[in-house]
Amino acid sequence: MEQSEPGDTAPDATDADDERDVVAQATGVLVAQFGISPDAAFDKLAAAANERDRGVVDVAREVVEHGGL
């Protein structure tokens, strides 16, 4: 069994944290872009992901990189 170094975090936890962070950032971008609530922004993000047949995290990354939908 592989031992982790002190201070290392589980890879799954880090990935999940990164995904939550990018979704939160994208939600913030959409709040600013459209002047809507965070809940409405997340709904808009989820709808865009559904329309594009992609994951929410993938679309969130695009929103953060490009500054909006």
Structure explained in plain terms:
The chain has 69 residues and is mainly alpha-helical. The chain has a domain at 34-69. It has helices at 11-34, 38-51, 56-66. Helix 1 (11-34) crosses helix 2, helix 1 packs across helix 3 and helix 2 crosses helix 3. The longest helix has 24 residues, at 11-34. The mean pLDDT is 88.
Could you spell the SSE succession in H and E letters? HHH
State the shape.
globular
Low-confidence stretches: none
Alpha plus pi helix count: 3
The helix fraction, in percent, is over 70%
Give the strand tally.
0
Radius of gyration: 15 Å
Query: What structural category do the secondary elements indicate?
Result: mainly alpha
Largest sheet: none
Overall pLDDT metric: 88
Strand content: under 5%
- End-to-end distance, in Å? 45 Å
Features:
3 helices; mainly alpha; about 70 residues; globular; single chain
Summarize the structure.
The chain has 69 residues and is mostly helical.
List the helices and strands and how they pair.
Blueprint: H1 11-34, H2 38-51, H3 56-66
